[in-house]
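Team,

Forwarding the record for the chain on the shared tracking sheet. I've put the sequence and predicted structure together so nobody has to dig through attachments.
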Amino acid sequence: MTSDEFFRLVRTWLTIHLPRARRLSPHTIRSYKAALNALLDYLRETQHLELDGITFDGINRSTITGFTTWLLDVKHMEPSSANQRLAAIKSFLSYCAGEDPALVAIWLDVKLVRPVRAVAHAPDGLTMPAVDALIRAPRQDTRRGLRDTTIILLIFDAAARVQEILDLTPADIDTTPGAGRVTLTGKGTKTRTVPIMDKTGRHLDQYVNEFHPGTPAPGASFFYTVRAGQHHQMSQDNIAYLLNKHAAAARAHCPELPERIHAHQLRHARAMQMLRAGVPLPHIKEFLGHANIATTSIYASADSQMVREAIQKAASVTPDLAPIWKGSDDLILRLAGLK
């Protein structure tokens, strides 16, 4: 097969199959595109191929195994990220096999490549004092401070992924006291509705009054930036910048804040808070939008504080054992087997 056929299938997969047939989100499609770009970089770097020389003939189980090793050893990628790239490549080849029976053998061969074994790391959630300091860091008497406070508070309270926050529209927000909630669109365009605190609802109302006066368009971006007089959806880089900006200011009062902050640390902190409050894992799974409860279970295995507290509580109600080594010297020696 020629390189033209290879890149024709790449284009139809990215521009037609994924967005129209599978209805994947733009964020997911960007991830798949990154995987293909990484594979092209690998082929050019290790096999010294030009783009117009890349065909399906050079893709097999050995090639893709080498690709995952390259991601780990050369690009220093985490196993979970390397496995995401591998899954994307397999998905692409599955599509290609459906389009051209001549590619079925390649797809079946690459299917045998096993994912990298990933070591489960404890979630790096922020402590609650750190969360509080980060939420309080923006000056709420300024327009931008109000926006940043609302974003940080909502990410934490809804335990939301960054893209879920960026994809919010005014129609997704309900600030009714005692029944406030937000509807989040997660991975695979799956939606879930999560409750929010009344305090978060009040901040959202203030934000709407300032940033969406009047009757906002239901499908407009809830959080936005202004460029050339036009509203544009905020980017993940915007969120990363504001988080680290306010963390730097808050660190003077709360040394527990790490040097680098990312939004997932707020999500992890909320999950750990719920676990410690006694919320069952299946409920936390639905709240976080996890597809598998095994993903949620890592919070339970990571929380050594809960285990420690349970042990101390059990020790306080356990009666002391009667002393064994008590009596005359002769009796103690006999019990110890010394006589």
